[in-house]
Amino acid sequence: MNMDLSDRAVSIREGEELDVKKVEEFLKDSITGLSGDLVVEQFPSGFSNLTYLIRVGEREMVLRRPPFGRKAKTAHDMGREFRILSALNGVYPYTPKPLLYSEDPEVMGCPFYVMERIPGIILRKDMPKGLDFTPEQGRALCHTLMDVLCELHAIDYKAVGLQDFGRPVGYVRRQVEGWSERYRQARTPDAPTFENFMKWLEERIPEESSRYSVIHNDYKFDNVVLSLKDPLKIIGVLDWEMATIGDPLMDLGCSLAYWVHPTDSPGVQAASMMVTHMPGLLTKAEMVERYARTAGIKLSMDDFMFYYCFGIFRVAVIMQQIYYRYYHGQTKDKRFAMLIFSSHIIDEELRKQIPDLA
Prior knowledge:
Blueprint: H1 20-30, E1 38-42, E2 50-56, E3 59-65, H2 78-88, E4 98-102, H3 105-108, E5 112-116, H4 135-153, H5 171-186, H6 195-203, E6 213-215, E7 224-226, E8 234-237, E9 244-246, H7 248-256, H8 266-270, H9 284-295, H10 301-327, H11 339-353
Antiparallel strand pairs: 1-2, 2-3, 3-5, 4-5, 6-9, 7-8
Helix pairs in contact: 4-9, 5-10, 7-10, 10-11
């Protein structure tokens, strides 16, 4: 497979530069065997924590730090992200190997961590040039995507020392209440209210689940790494900043909230942030069916509707929190200006899914 398909870093965005000299001194003091000049670039995708490619000689690492500007109260916890990578390392073969975590304000003024880079292919909004899937391969990749998620949900989180990583009992209710409050706090005058939908969610919180697991909370194509040698094989799962212990169906709902299918409305397809034209993609119902079969549970799309609609709403909240930073001049990243349209598209989509909201 052509190495040009590997995910690429680029020049650092204005206002998000690192003090290269301080970073170099710290890394060489903390990680043995580093030799050569340090080069820093930035991975351009993603809207939350900032991700940098660190090259020292032939060695490549990834540095993660919080964004500049307003931060949600519990978001961007670098120590938490480092901890789950450390716990899953060796148990879940898709996690990057964590190398170091630091809260030293002298290095960059915030907590950050460094991990090994997993070189490979990441599918974003457009297919990488030179990579094509047949319908059969697209379908197979969908199956793999669900199977790797099921592998995560099957891990005994207590056995890997994560028994206190989250509070699984009452998780769904806390999520509904917490994300509703986050939206109200981040709402700008040009955004929809979502008040009717937040009420709909609160009134339909399902009975407490007895099935708890490690959940990623941001599991989607652009957070998995495909093998350069075999692009149908997933070799990495990235961006663990929202991981916790909770109801795995909430994880699946948040994942499929990003799942834009060619049969979806033009507005939804226009707002897609992932590959939407890949041939052979499963529908959302087929993805739910695959997950249920692999996990060994009974689950219909009707049963899943609460989780799916919550996932869509959560996307709106995330987009709004990021847009809030742009609206108030806390970031100069011009990509964020368009996120307000995503909120309105999601509002329209929820009204289609739930006629009572219209």
